[in-house]
Write a structure and sequence with these properties.
By secondary structure, this protein is α+β, with helices and mostly antiparallel strands. The chain is 28% helix and 23% strand. Strands 2, 4, 8, 20, 22, 24, 26 and 27 form an 8-stranded mixed beta sheet that branches. Strands 12, 13, 14, 15, 16, 17, 18 and 19 form an 8-stranded mixed beta sheet that branches. The protein has a 5-stranded mixed beta sheet with strand order 1-3-25-21-23. One of its GO terms (molecular function) is zinc ion binding.
Length: 796
Amino acid sequence: MDFIELEAIEGLRWSWNSWPTTKSEAAALVVPLSILCTPLTQFGDLPVLPYDPLICSKCGAVLNPYARVDYQSRIWYCSFCNGRNPFPKSYLGINENSIPAELFPTYSTVEYHLGKKSMNLGHNPQKPGFGSGPGYGNGLVLSGSSSISRMGSFSSSNSSLAGSDRAGSGFVPGPAFVFVVDVCTAEEELRVLKSELLHVITRLPENALAGLVVFDSLVRVYDLGFSECFRVVLFHGEREISSEQTKQLLGIHHIKQQLGKTSTVHKQGFLLPVSECEFSFTNAIEDLHSSPQALTGHRPLRSTGVAISVAVGLLEGCFVSSASRIMVFTSGPATIGPGIIVASDYSHAIRTHRDIDSGYAPHYIRSCEFYKRLSKRLCDSSVVLDLFACSLDQVGAAELKVPVESSGGFMMLGESFDSEKFRKCLNHIFIHDEEGNLNMCFDATIELVTTKDVKICGALGPCVSLQKKNSSVSDKGIGESGTYVWKLGTLNKKTCIAFFFEVGHEQHIQPNSAFFIQFITQYRYGNMGIRKRVTTAARRWVANHSPGIHAGFDQEAAASVMARLAIHRTERFFARDVISWLDEKLILFASKFGQYVQEDPSSFHLASNFSLYPQFMYHLRRSQFIDVFNSTPDETAFFRLMLNCEGVVGSLLMVQPTLFQYSFEGPPIPVLLDVYSIFPDVILLFDSYFNVVIHYGSKIAQWRKLGYDRDPNHENFRKLLEAVDLDAKHLVAERIPVPKLIKCDQHSSQARFLLAKLNPSVTQNSTCTDGSEVIFTDDVSLQVFIDHLQALAVQG
């Protein structure tokens, strides 16, 4: 079974592609029943249907290829609940030879443009979307000499926004962006940041709304509608401020609703369309200057928490209930007010992992609680929080992780605003599609519909539970649980959510019968149109102990799921306890699926589709997600946030990096992630997702220093160096966030980025090194780990 091909069709990876019929057998699988869903997977032939979906009146499932259709009576029977549903009049001409795209067997995923109106068109059998085969993939129905299409314009639910004197004028507001700028940034760094922000404002559509908040020890909200001079509203940086207080101090108040009229907001200038405020926004940015330097021995006074809170209050006050982002640009830790990371006096060190674990981080818990309250406000208002932190020191990303992750926001940790990494990440967010709209998705929800035998346990990823329950929701909770609908502030084509399930009414399940799960993703696109993507997947129940269970195991998806579960546990347990939990699960897994003679470790064997799973767990135990010894709390928060939203390929690359060898003997070849792969006369290209390392063997490094690559007699050597450089640049160019590119020679200090990830099969304790590279560590090698696993698994 090719799971990658299935993912290309469905956008899903299942840890188990065949499910047992009893709860006890499902629990014995060790790896939970789970699906990794990438809602906006790019499909080459995704049908986009210009009409609203047909929904089952009984269970809420959308019409799909698994539904039974009675063409004569024009009735469809839901595959989830067997509910009987009539086709509307617009499906008058449906028959076996003329069916809409949502019923094509090859279209397990379709996307709808919501809010389209039906209208009758003349006969046009060549019009795209008409016909009876997949080649006509827009789902319009051909009926005799007439054809029926549902066309119309997008509708917008935003009737009252900032400056909404426009209500009824036909103006459709675009997404809102509030830029929160830290002016404690050094003057040269601030100059670069200002230049990039000016570039961003020119890329926004004219109907997009823009706001500007600037902070140091005070928070300043700019009135962009006041052009005579700069007009700002000041907030004290040391005091927590509520949403109502923000609106009151900004002077934003609502007119009471009158009969037949909608409630609107008084004209104000804190959030305006770019077409109205681009000049004043540009002037305000150009006028920003770095705040005076702090006293000797003190950090600058930053009120990051209050600045973000005020930005949220601004959006709440302006009735921006969807499609909005708060983008924070900071260069250091918050030192005053709610959300404080460290005191301004340099005698107080910024918290480490040891400080947090031992309770010696005085501000950590209180700041985390503040940002958790803020994340609730972000979710309620459908606001995305992005963090761009460029500093040699920590800025408090660990405390900010919850609101950034739960809103689906973007996090970037860098050293300088004057870097290609920052520019690429910022520009990536504001890319446009082919129609010139911002390639962004906002205010998304994911709804799951399941057959009655499947229960929903929860989800892990950049989403929030909406606490909507029905009969398909399990009492057992994992992650964001207690619901069948989740909210996401934003989505992109890589966003991946892990959903967890359990067996429901096991007494009613028949082996070899099918079950269905439907993923309904609704979101607002950059042009403010509403879209709904529906993916319907089917799998089979199999009898307990059936070989079908083994054949349906996807070890890559399973490793990705277990990695998410592990980092979810790190929020409540110490790292050593999480490692013990992983070890316990792995021993149970090996004992369950291994083939062996009792008490004979040498007889242990795993089938090929299980054999890599222990190796993934070995690397996960040693990864920066669990072992945080060499990472700051900010770095760890960033690593975990990224793993929690990446798909199978990306997350496995983070856990078990790839290693390619370049030599004179032929094209690049993949080699083992082992210290034995290091040779003096080869170049290694190492990719761990966050770092891309070019490691030159000692001989290669020596030849390069002698300038052999510039000698025409050594053309092959020049081509070898160029080949690995080109491949490394390609890896860096296509990935966001941009990984760090490191070039190092064997035995140099920078080589530690590679050595730390290699299997330490040769260490300082090895009796025979054979002249190979030595890794100084107390970690056991992969072979020793596997030997211990086999010994424990065969004990029964």
